[in-house]
Amino acid sequence: MLRLVKLSHEYRDLLDEMMTEWTASGEAIIPWAIRKNNFRDFERYLRELDIMEDDGAHVPDTTYFALDEDRGIFVGAANIRLRLNERLLLCGGHIGDGIRPSERGRGYGTELVRLALVKCRECGIARVLMVCDEDNRASARTIEKNGGVFENVIPTDDGPVRRYLIDLTNGKNGYDNEKGDSPC
Predict the structure, then answer these.
(1) Which residues does 120 contact at the CB level (< 8 Å), separation at least 6?
(2) How confident is the model over 40-70, as pLDDT tens digits?
(3) Residue 110's domain is classified under what CATH number?
(4) In this predicted structure, which of 33-37, 79-83, 123-127, 168-172 has the lowest mean pLDDT?
(5) Domain for residue 121, yes or no?
(6) From the CA atom positions of the chain, what is the Rg in Å?
(7) pLDDT at residue 29 tops 80
(8) Is 129 helix (H, G, I), strand (E, B) or coil?
(9) Cα 182 vs. chain centroid, distance in angstroms?
(10) Does residue 151 form part of some domain?
(11) Total domain count for the chain?
C-alpha cells in the first residue's frame, strides 16, 4: 500500500537509497523540491525541504514522500505548491512529482498523484493545475487518469509543456471520502 509521509529521521535511510539511485541514473526528471539541496546533508535537507514563506522566487510548498509500506521503500515524491506565481501558472503547476527509475511502470505515479490531489483538497485548492513536458506521455496519462482535462501547450525555454486542470470540487475519484491530517 502506498502512503504519503513527511520526511523525518526515521526515513533517512529510505531517502538515501532512493536519491542515490535517482542521481546515479543521470536523468533530469528528479523533482526540483527533492534535488534542490544535498540529501547527504540530512539536517539541512530536512530543515529546508519545505518552503514556508513566499520569497519572491518561490511560493510556500510542502513535500511528501511515497512510501510503499509493504516493501518499506520510498518509490517517489510529490511537492505541493500551495499557490501559484506567474511562472508556476504557466509551466509549473500545483504538483511536482516523480517516481524513481526502478519503480516506474507499476502504477505508482497514478496513485502518487491521486494521493497528492487529496492533500491539495485538504489545503483548499479546488482547481489543481498540473503540467508535464509535451513528449512525456507517461506523465500525461497519469494526469489524465486522475481527472486532468487538457488545457493547452505552452512553449518554455526548456521545451513545450502540456497544461491540465483537475477540478476537485466535483467529488469524483473518492476525494470526498479521504481523511487525514491537513498538510496546510
Answers:
(1) 80, 94, 95, 128, 168
(2) 999 999 999 999 988 878 899 999 999 999 9
(3) 3.40.630.30
(4) 168-172
(5) yes
(6) 16
(7) no
(8) strand
(9) 16
(10) no
(11) 1
Q: What's the number of CA atoms in the CB half-sphere (13 Å) around residue 77? A: 22
For 47, the domain range is 2-125
Look up residue 123 and give its three cell numbers: 489545503
Beta-ladder partners of 130? 164
Q: Which residue has the cell 542521481?
A: 23
Residue with cell string 504557466: 90
Bridge partner residues of 67 (DSSP): 3, 74
Q: Looking at the chain, how many residues does it have?
A: 184
Q: What is the pTM of this model?
A: 0.90
CB count within 10 Å of CB 92 equals 22
d(CA 64, CA 79): 6
**Arithmetic mean of pLDDT, 9-29:** 93
Nearest to 157 by CA among 133, 137, 138: 133
77 within some domain? yes
From the centroid of its chain, how far is CA 123? 15
Residue-level pLDDT at 171: 58
